[in-house]
Amino acid sequence: MQKRALAVDTVIVKGNKILLVRRRYPPFRGYWALPGGFVEKGETMKQAAVREAREETGLEIRPVNMIGVYDDPKRDPRGTVSAAYLCDVAGGKIRTSQETSGIRFFGFDEIPDKLAADHSKIIHDTLKIIRWW
């Protein structure tokens, strides 16, 4: 039986915009996605979120609140379970990385329809939380 890997997704919000990256590699090559990746041994999920955001975007972030845990076995062909965090920008300079071919802040009303994995659901859940506050 294959074990499932733990990952994090970051919903980086600045004003009324969410940061998305365009994936350079499979799975979901060419799709817009939330920055994120695998949790490494010895890391907390929040530490992994900060590291992955820095690696993929150049930004220093501050996880503010967990949005939820996403564990549908069909969410990603690698079988990941992801913890998603709502994050603020704390510094850094936005840039693409080896893993990304594009990076952009999208207004809440201009999020692309087709995103990687279940990132549309994560963003939908985030917007429900933000609008509730």
What does this molecule look like?
- By secondary structure, this protein is of the alpha+beta class.
- The chain has one domain (6-132): Nucleoside Triphosphate Pyrophosphohydrolase.
- Helices cover 20% and strands 40% of the residues.
- The protein has 2 helices and 7 strands; from the N terminus they run E-E-E-E-H-E-E-E-H.
- It has helices at residues 45-57, 119-132, and strands at 6-14, 17-23, 32-33, 36-38, 59-70, 81-92, 100-107.
- Strands 1, 2, 3, 4, 5, 6 and 7 form a 7-stranded mixed β-sheet that branches.
- Strand 2 (17-23) and strand 3 form a beta hairpin.
- It starts with 5 loop residues before the first strand and ends with a helix.
- The mean pLDDT is 96.
What is the compact description of this entry?
With 133 residues, the protein is of the alpha+beta class. The chain has a single domain, classed as Nucleoside Triphosphate Pyrophosphohydrolase, CATH 3.90.79.
